[in-house]
Amino acid sequence: MREDGLEGGAGVRLMFDGHAIEAEAGASLLQAWTAAGLPLTENVGCMGQGVCGACRVLVRREGERLADTALACETPAEEGMQVSFLDHFPARRPHAYDLRALTDSWTALDQIDAVFPEAKNCRHCSGCDRACPKGIEVQRMVNLAAGGEAFAAAALFDHCVMCNLCVAACPEHIDPAHLGQFVRRMSAALTLRPGDLIARLREIERGGQPIDPEAPGANPPPGP
Amino acid sequence: MSAPAAAHGIPHAAALAAWRGRAPAPPRALALPAPELLERFHPDRRPGAMVPLRVGASAGLPCRAELAALLQSDALVEDEDIAGAPLLDADVLVIGGGGAGCVAALTAARAGARVLLATKLRLGDSNTVMAEGGIQAAMGPEDSLQRHFEDTLRAGHFAADKALVAALVSDGPGVIRWLIQEGMGFDLAEGSDRMGGNLLRRKPGGATAARLLSYRDFTGLEMMRALREAVLLAPGITLLERHPALELLTDDRGRCAGAVLHELARGRPVLARAGATVLATGGAGRLHVAGFPTSNHYGATADGLVLAYRLGAALREVDSFQYHPTGIAWPPRMAGQLVSEAARASGAALVNGLGERFVDELDTRDVVAAAILREIAEGRGVARDGQAGVFLDTPGLERAKPGILGRSLVTLTHLAHRAGLDAAAEPFLVRPTLHYQNGGIAIGPDGWSGVPGLLCAGEVTGGLHGRNRMMGNALLELVAFGRRAGAAAAADARAERPRNIGLTHLADWRRALIAQGLPLARKAPLVFPPYGNFDMAKDRGRAA
User: What region holds the FAD-dependent oxidoreductase 2 FAD-binding domain (chain B) (predicted)?
Assistant: First the structure.
């Protein structure tokens, strides 16, 4: 076996960014790309865990009319596939805020409205839902956030991997991925106040947690 | 692949029958004293694995041979390459867009510094985002900073720097508060309120108290999401994606003055000049040392170690790597991907081909990994399609704690699905995977390397973990030392303005290589692994 985890040998044929390549059955699209000798310097991150959202691709399967979006590291290569990388690009409109300045949770709805004014313009096209490779109900999150239901909206974005495909898909420039992070971050920063953490921080501030570098447990046990 | 994949063992079907017949297998202590087990079965102890470094600030230090070859190589750039290159100016240059780089950049920018953040791939593409298990901070009433301090030293076989470990554990609770302020969520104990309740705590391998805080089993993703948004929104940070660093710059006093970056989109060099430089380039898993597969992200190619060492920084424990006990062994296309320690921390057992347990699953990672390699080497492993491993008994865990796979081991369940198995019905086949670089660049408690103008944070540093890292100390380290390095860099940058920047350190370096009879033909950093089919030395000339 090789370091990329593939055994070599014949398998399925597909088109990838204009290259006709052959991939071992069971290989991911990303493995198929490198095994074909093509250079990989972008559109790659965690390389298989499916958590970084870097390897975005457009995939059309044989016999299908429409193309889907997917992550190349977790999509197996199939006979007759047509694939192209979707370069990462940032959102074009800034949705700027300073989380540390948002201290008044009574005005959470105003704050969502002020930072993401487009959220209430959702036209329910569900383009974001179709674009999401993780099956998140993106559109529902947008609608919940626009209605001020911050916790419910945040929970829906639990599995987001920041691929930004929903950002590319939204005709209203809502930037759902960033709206999702905004409600998640606001929920944590404004409402998470663990009692055990607060108690320990107070104790440390009062000098109640000294460290003794020469305590018996901080040195190797004496030899036999 | 080399030794660990040796496929003799008990055939999968027979092993499954043995596992079913004995389930649940009773706990069994290690049959061999830990020092002897490590000596005989840990990959770092194999003859020929280490060589002494022959040039540089740590000449004589034992070093993994694959890494030594890169450390003792020539630069990719010459003076003529950088003449006329575009010049960017900043107070602080941060190299690396993972957790440590983001935290350092945020901290420096908030202290008023103009920050350049350069990263090889995209912001957030890093080992941080892949971290699953959690982050340590001594929170419980029965726990203390002292216990966290002693546990970390003991797990690292007392090789760590006590001042660094004291700084690490003391920062712990403050780091959790800082992360919550940045918008990161944490799991709460069952029935706990968001205000005034308790954090969910579990016991990491090798610890004496439940100290591991988490966000489900994708703690690193939750952390990176918050950090990434914070960096994108922070005024004062200029982000340069697809800009790997090829060499550090020096001024006429030998101080680090920034870096030569390579703009991949155009194939040309860009000079980033800065009063202080923070290296946060992460680890080295993609060197595949000892032939192991890796759980690391694509960019983990030891670039930062190469750059800092060439500039005169000292290294430590570069002969010590962490092999995570539970990487995927089958299917081969997923080899090396991680099954989180959260599975064992929640109670999943390791079972050999005879259906027997063979080690305390929550012993330190080096011991558990060596114990698995021993089972395989002595023929008690499980063989399947030419791969060998042992079982991780997730069905047994689900039986003992119904619902746990779907509820709190989401990533694991997803992983099983991609491997084509049902984690509740069939055990994973696992074997150790290259996971972490225990050593690295020697630093002080504020993140300073010995080279003026150069700070380091995160996995690229050495001294915090000794010879074995505990689960949950890596995420803590990157925030604690990202903050320390970012603050120190911002404070120092204002006092310093680099003058006459260039590559003056290379003349001495090349003389030293020649004096030792080392070849100048090998160039580093690697930037991408060989199977990335990209030659940096060739690409350098593309725009010329």
Answer: 91-475
